[in-house]
Specification:
Layout (H helix, E strand, L loop, with lengths): L4 E12 L2 E12 L3 E5 L6 H8 L7 E6 L2 E2 L5 H7 L1 E3 L12 H7 L9 H6 L3 H19 L15 H13 L5 E5 L7 H18 L2 E5 L3 H7 L2 E6 L2 E6 L1 H5 L2 H6 L16
Parallel strand pairs: 3-8, 3-9, 6-7, 7-8
Antiparallel strand pairs: 1-2, 1-4, 4-5, 9-10
Helix pairs in contact: 3-6
Length: 267
């Protein structure tokens, strides 16, 4: 029985002038899984994300989502297909409340128009009620009820990370791209975020493509792991297989062959 694939990269290359950020990378993300990209800083992981959600147009290769070629689509059209993303550096509106930041994730679903929206009646009112219901469910899910009316800029960093995750969830994605979601967090915040990622995958059925440097998180929650170095794929497989791969240990971690240092520490 073949495994259904939600996203595919086919021989994708991305060059910036004379610099090749990623070179001939192919991958397939099985539907309903947590699929992680790991590698050293500058390996090309975020570049792959930027190609998938349309910020960059690959120099060569194709990107498929649900068997549809999205290589040349604009970011907002890709978002409407069902792909949402968080960023390595927080991209929140710090002077807006948590609730309003999450409501921004529902903009793709607004169809009432400017006039009805301004008068706030009929279709616009129904949309507002429906969108607030979705956002309130996310607030409950992420356990941020007590900060829902607070300005994002006043919140601890770990809580801001959770808000950004909530805004992405508000888009109701079928594929969620998480770019270093536990970066800068303490141990407790990291545990919480790992739990939320697992719950999103298991309860919502959302496929997750994860870039993360915390190997404890990666090895504990991933179904598959792909390793890139200097823009090229060097290994792919189950977490335990990748953890024991000599090329990964040597190239990614700078350790001698035979040493296994990619071990889970969370969960």
């Amino acid at each position: 029985m073949s495994v259904k694939t939600i996203a595919k990269l086919k021989n994708v290359t991305m060059r910036f002038g004379g610099i090749t950020a990623i070179s001939n990378v192919s991958l397939q993300v099985p539907t309903g899984t947590i699929y992680s990209l790991i590698g050293p800083n500058g390996a090309g992981k975020s570049t792959i994300f930027n190609c998938i959600n349309g910020i960059y147009k690959p120099t060569n290769g194709r990107i498929l989502f649900n068997n549809e070629d999205i290589t040349n689509l604009k970011p907002f059209k890709i978002a409407r297909k069902g792909i949402a993303r968080t960023f390595q550096n927080l991209a929140l509106f710090r002077n807006m409340t948590v609730l309003d930041n999450l409501l921004l994730g529902r903009n793709l679903f607004l169809k009432a128009g400017i006039i009805r929206g301004g008068l706030f009646y009929g279709k616009a009112l129904r949309e507002e009620i429906a969108n607030r219901r979705v956002v309130e469910e996310i607030i409950d899910f992420l356990e941020i009820e007590n900060v829902r009316k607070m300005l994002v800029g006043s919140l601890p960093f770990g809580m801001q990370r959770r808000v950004e995750l909530g805004r992405a969830l508000a888009m109701k994605p079928t594929l969620l791209l998480l770019d270093e979601p536990v970066s800068g967090m303490n141990a407790e915040e990291t545990e919480d975020m790992a739990r939320f990622i697992l719950d999103i995958n298991e309860e919502f059925g959302t496929t997750i493509l994860l870039v993360e440097h915390d190997m404890g998180v990666v090895m504990d929650i991933s179904d598959y792991v792909l390793v890139i170095n200097f823009g090229e794929k060097i290994a792919e497989g189950l977490p335990k297989e990748v953890a024991q791969n000599p090329s990964v240990i040597q190239a990614y971690l700078g350790q001698e062959e035979g040493t296994t240092v990619l071990e889970g520490s969370h969960g």
